[in-house]
Amino acid sequence: MTQHQETTDKRNPILLWTVVGLFAAATMAGALLAWDRLFAPDDSGEPNPGVLEGAEALDWSVGPATLGWFQQVVNDGNSIYVLSTAPGAGIGNPVVPKAIWSSKDGKEWTPHVLDEPWVTRIAAVDGLLYAVGTAPGAVDPSARTVQVGVSSDDGETFDISVIPASTPEGGGVPDPQIGVVGDGVVVFGLGSQTFFSPQGGAFQEVEYPFGDREIGQVSQVGHELFAYTYALQIEDPQLDAGSVMRSEDGRTWSDLELPGGLSWASAIGEVGGRTVLVGYRDRDGAVLAVEGEGTWQVSLVSDLLGVAPGAQFWVGESSVGDHGVAMILTAEVARTDGSPLGWLTGLLTGTTQSPGEGRDFTTSSALLYSPDLVNWSLYPAAEMGGSTLEGLVASPHGITVHSVGVQNNLLFRQQAVATWQAP
Fold it and tell me: N or C terminus: fewer CB in 10 A for the chain?
């Protein structure tokens, strides 16, 4: 079974990485908090981790980070690809150099530095790597030309095709998305434009399949596509604006009809023959949705873990596939003191609060992992050598997690690796 990982962020990557650094500096002490305090006490008054007790602990090896700052991770079952910054690239540069890193086992990585940082999304199917992005227009340098690249050497070289669409610089058009189906390649996200190319053929515009809904991202699971879409206006305030669509050809789509809607989809794939989605709702935090016999069962991660009242989880990078489910969580735990002094102290100790509003809470991140959707284990960022988790690669060979911390007023990045023998 082909496994899949999807890691993405729609925000400005330079801004994101700067915020990550500042957040890491403010939360180094907070990351050392015992996550046990998140869990509701049992009758004896002791914290009750619930399902976490059934999981086999992973053995982590911590060392300096190998990869750059993550933008996206994909996996076709044979190779793993990470779109990130190039080796040694500084995050403060106006134009950050990019690289596509390739690996067969998630431990040894080869960087393929892009001559120009044009790639915004990648997909991998059957030994081929696909990339989409924008490049300076040949006629008007102020415009951006959309192009697609196909590589058979892990991103070292690309055969480029130009799509007959041009987007103005800074025109607010979202980054293009790419999907690979049995008979061709589909590119979405150019406003309301969609383009299709039969294998080896030129791109032609086809009907946009999502009506008045915007497209957030496209995920590849084997030869099947899943698209997260959202409405700009919400008709029912009790439902989140997002939904996830499924397609085998990239042109006809069906709604998964997730109960309660969705604010964001982090990852989707198959575990034990069941389709599993990790996502987020504004009002509920992280959610886990599992498909069975045509219906979806949606669980709140906070309920799954049996956390104490006042705690909520946000989900970051996630992975779903043959290895199971892995997700980076950020936890918020309510505290009591809402004074301005407490807010200032919070910036230095990993707590945050709004002065005068009486709301004070602690934040910290951890990795939640399950190989089978039954047994779960939780690993705080402090066990990964840092204070904030920012990158995740998971495959049948193991899991690699990148963490960020501050030491002697300097930002550093570590990686923690847990490996096992693939079944």
Answer: C
